[in-house]
Design brief:
This protein is mainly α. It contains 16 helices and no strands. Helix 2 packs across helix 4, helix 5 runs antiparallel to helix 14 and helix 6 packs across helix 14.
């Protein structure tokens, strides 16, 4: 029992440290995690860590958060997974809720908000470059990405995005199914396949059931839970891809496009996962209770998917067809992000030549000077404030 408590304290301490210091998005988080959990603490080796990263890239949802949850579960069971998520996530949730309060109280100057909207253009463009290089490295996947972007721009609905992802998976399977899959690593778990099946059942029941029940329940809380659970369940490719899905769900009915993009910009300035944007949006949608519901609903699919998939990962990982379909899905994610770069990010953030000049400056600082994202966000917010004060 004492050992368990020590493990829990250790998990919370390590994950909170990462939650306070992990700037730079999912790719950077994977690097921070490796340094903390593999190099310093030696909780697992590189091969097992690479396998966990592969699993979390395979699943929808926030990949870096899922890696953290998985490592917490390997170290301390289900509760260890929760503590790992809590420590990594809560610092940025708190910061974004405070920002939402500033915005709603009108105590945040519109020039600063415009600067945050502009920086979102640079950040998404930067993410698009990196993801394109990794996820669409050949002509076939570039074609899938471009096709996905065209469809999303012409048919801007959530169902179109889901259809694009499914079709891309089919194309990926058709093109890459003959390639070999890597050998898996066996992971020591405190739960087995029965628990995994139960988790998958709950995941599917909520994903299918919530939208069916929602028309019959007039409740803001239920609507918020449905929106964020659905988005957290079907977003492939990490935090930046959540932008277009959330924008179509919450803008106009719940908030203005300006408020939405300002929150996305602010989310770049805080450490931790980008999915904590749910805290900001929940505050605008329904106050403190909205924050709790939105954050829980956004990350609950990740827990269910991790618990559901870990016991079967050794079998799944050896299937070349699964890996092939995933290549197509990942390429479509690049296309979805490309469409989002134009609408809503560029259309909401760039009002004229001055805004575009600031966006180019921010992009240069990120890509060529390689400054930390939070520094770029602060500089761009100041430039926006100065530009609109003159």
């Amino acid at each position: 029992m004492a050992k368990k408590k020590n493990n829990y304290a250790e998990i919370l301490k390590a994950s909170t440290k990462l939650g306070l210091t992990s700037f730079g998005g999912p790719a950077a988080h994977i690097g921070y995690f490796r340094d903390e959990y593999v190099t310093k603490r030696k909780w697992l080796d590189d091969k097992a860590y690479a396998d966990l990263v592969a699993l979390c890239q395979f699943l929808p949802g926030p990949a870096s958060s899922q890696v953290g949850i998985s490592i917490g579960m390997l170290r301390g069971g289900m509760f260890g997974g929760f503590l790992s998520w809590f420590g990594f996530t809560m610092p940025s949730v708190i910061l974004l809720v405070l920002f939402a309060l500033l915005v709603t109280n009108g105590s945040f100057d519109s020039g600063w908000i415009q600067g945050l909207k502009i920086v979102a253009v640079a950040v998404v463009a930067h993410a698009l470059l990196g993801m394109g290089k990794n996820l669409a490295p050949d002509r076939q996947r570039i074609a899938i990405a471009v096709g996905a972007a065209i469809v999303i721009l012409l048919i801007p609905t959530t169902w179109a995005q889901i259809g694009v992802i499914v079709l891309a998976g089919v194309l990926g399977y058709a093109i890459y199914r003959k390639e070999d899959a890597p050998e898996p690593v066996k992971l020591a778990l405190s739960f087995g396949k029965k628990t995994g099946i139960a988790a998958w059942s709950i995941f599917a029941a909520l994903l299918i059931g919530l939208p069916l029940i929602r028309p019959f329940i007039e409740s803001a809380s239920f609507a918020i839970f449905d929106i964020f659970y659905r988005v957290g369940s079907i977003v492939f490719g990490g935090g930046h891809v959540v932008l277009p899905m959330l924008e179509r769900e919450v803008v106009s009915d719940w908030m203005t496009p300006d408020s939405f993009i300002a929150g996305y910009g602010a989310a770049q300035a805080v450490p931790g996962p980008l999915f904590t944007l749910a805290g900001y949006l929940g505050q605008l949608m329904n106050g403190g209770w909205g924050v709790v519901i939105a954050v829980i609903a956004m990350f609950l699919p990740s827990f269910l998917l991790i618990v559901g998939t870990l016991p079967f990962w050794s079998i799944i990982r050896t299937k070349s067809g699964v890996q092939a379909a995933l290549k197509g899905v990942n390429a479509s994610v690049v296309g979805i992000l490309l469409a989002a770069l134009y609408d809503p990010v560029f259309t909401s953030g760039i009002r004229g030549p001055v805004d575009f000049a600031i966006a180019i400056t921010a992009f240069t600082m990120l890509v060529y000077f390689k400054l930390a994202p939070w520094i770029v966000v602060l500089v761009t917010a100041v430039l926006g404030a100065v530009a609109y004060a003159i």
